[in-house]
Amino acid sequence: MGEDLRFPDGFLFGTAASATQVEGHCAQSDWAAFAREPGRVRGGDTPDDACDQLHRFREDVALQARLCMGAHRLSIEWARVEREPGEFDPATWDHYRDVLGAHRDAGITPMVTVHHVTLPRWVAQRAACSRRICRRSSRASPSAPSRRSATCASSGSPSTSRNMLALQAHLLGVWPPARSSPVEAVRAHQNLFRAHAAMYRAMHEAAGRRGHSISVGVAHHLRVIEPERFGRLADRMWAALFERLFNDAFARAVCDSGLHDFFGVNYYSRDLVRFSAAHARAGFLRRLVPEGAEVSDLGWEIYPEGLGYVLDAWWPRARVPIYITENGIADADDDQRPRFLVRHLAEVARAIERGVDVRGYMHWSLLDGFEWAEGYAPRFGLVEVDRVTQERSPRPSAELYARIARARRIEARRPGAARGAKRGAAPA
Ligand code: BGC
């Protein structure tokens, strides 16, 4: 890095989180029930208390402000808002109004995710009872989310995250409803797009009725996907198939339909894809990291260049402003995060120099939260959370991020390699 890299005026530096992962105290969600089933979540962890943000949001907003954050992506917990079908809880709306107001008062732009992974239990139960695929993936059914989004349209600029849900819940079976069916995963994708289209329209209509302007987009998880062994046709075919289903299907449908005012990119890592007869339940797909590559605490490859590739690939297709809606690392001792942060932000700054219209970067995450099937073990937070006392302690990377956000630039001095960095093992 020869010269300082600068970010344009108005570029938003922020953080991202989802309700279930940080709020706590929502017994009505499908994840609260799922986490209680033996063997579902590592260590038997549950989202019951999470980071107790339900009660501590003002403290967390103050922390974001101290760290010079200009934006925060958060989600609305549907199970809390609509506890029973058609019964919207006024106290919960007041709560979310307070949360959004606290952000605005602190000069932090809230970005609202309408649906982040979880469902109310009653939706999940209905789906399970129906025994019909399209109803089973009623997380993907357009009617209910659009009803809710119409209600919350005035709150901000919602976005939705979809392909990861179809993969984890309907193919790998590690999230509820814990299904392993390629057919169902494809079906879920299609339904999720219908849900997105319905939500997009409902939110614009609701905002229009109130005379509000609103920006509605997607937060789409994109990975760099390559065949593990270029010489093997099966690996090349499976990499292409995974690319098509995971990266392309939903996002292409959104881009082609024009039903998006911005395009959110969730970027974490690269997958080397191997066709594996032993992985029939996962669609014969095995995902690996290159031997010797630096990896996070979760064994995910650290591959910042991939963010640049993804931005270059999707900017011409998206044709709307782009936000990095998630990018982060599980790194409990914070010895990799500073370099991870700088290298990924540098990719964003360079992409902007190349003409890609990136308007903001939301780091995943502000706090150490509930990491779904992995429980609380992975530490994604810029801010460490004590699991017993809930005390928040900013890690060195949080202070580094604050300095970059304040200066709106990355200094030319390259941060050194992480000492004792974790490396990927040779595939078996
Ligand atoms: C999800 C988050 C999750 C993160 C790290 C994202 O795709 O939206 O909920 O915590 O990945 O695993």
Number of helices: 14
Radius of gyration: 20 Å
Major sheet size, sense and barrel closure = 9 strands, mixed
Which regions are unreliable across 5 or more consecutive residues at pLDDT < 50? 133-144, 149-159
Q: Tally of extended strands?
A: 15
Helical percent range? 40-55%
Order of helices and strands: EEHHHEHEEHEHHHEHHEHEEHEHEEEHE
Distance between the termini: 36 Å
Structural class: alpha/beta
Mean pLDDT: 90
Shape: globular
Beta-strand proportion: 15-25%
User: Could you say which small molecules are bound to this protein?
Assistant: beta-D-glucopyranose
Account of the 3D structure:
The chain has 428 residues and is of the alpha/beta class. 40% of the residues lie in helices and 18% in strands. The strands form four sheets. Strands 2, 3, 6, 7, 8, 9, 10, 11 and 12 form a nine-stranded mixed β-sheet that branches. Strand 11 (322-326), helix 13 and strand 12 (358-364) form a beta-alpha-beta unit. Helix 13 (337-353) packs parallel to helix 14 (396-407). The longest helix has 28 residues, at 182-209. Residues 133-144 and 149-159 have low confidence and may be disordered. It binds beta-D-glucopyranose. Beta-D-glucopyranose binds at residues 18, 21, 117, 161, 164, 221, 266, 326, 364, 371.
